[in-house]
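seq as requested:
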Amino acid sequence: ASWREEVANRYPQYRHTTPEDDTHVGVIMEIGGIEVWAYIFENSQLYCQVEMSRDLPNKKRNIKKSWVYLGLEDLLPQEQTDAIWKYFDYNDFEGVFNCFLQVVEKCKQEIERENQAGVESEAESVE
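struct tokens:
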């Protein structure tokens, strides 16, 4: 099966990047009300990248101000203001895919933690 199928099967709850996005495979998640893109890209090297939604105004796209940066800096050491990533050898498909899955898992945990916190604060406000 292709990566795309595997990711679709593993993460049916997220929107997926489409081939027109130029990415091999990726998911679009919402963390703290902001869209975060995680994907694998090929450009003479393979890399796994996470960035804030391109629809955001520039100042809102500062990844360093978001949880994503702190949560993923050990997995994705290279950085710019609005994106973090890690390079892999051109043939290291397994490495880049495993990195991608770890990244999505970490984001997923954070989303679930936030949702949990959201539910609890809503419950408290009812009283």
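The CA atoms of residues 5 and 25 lie 9 Å apart.
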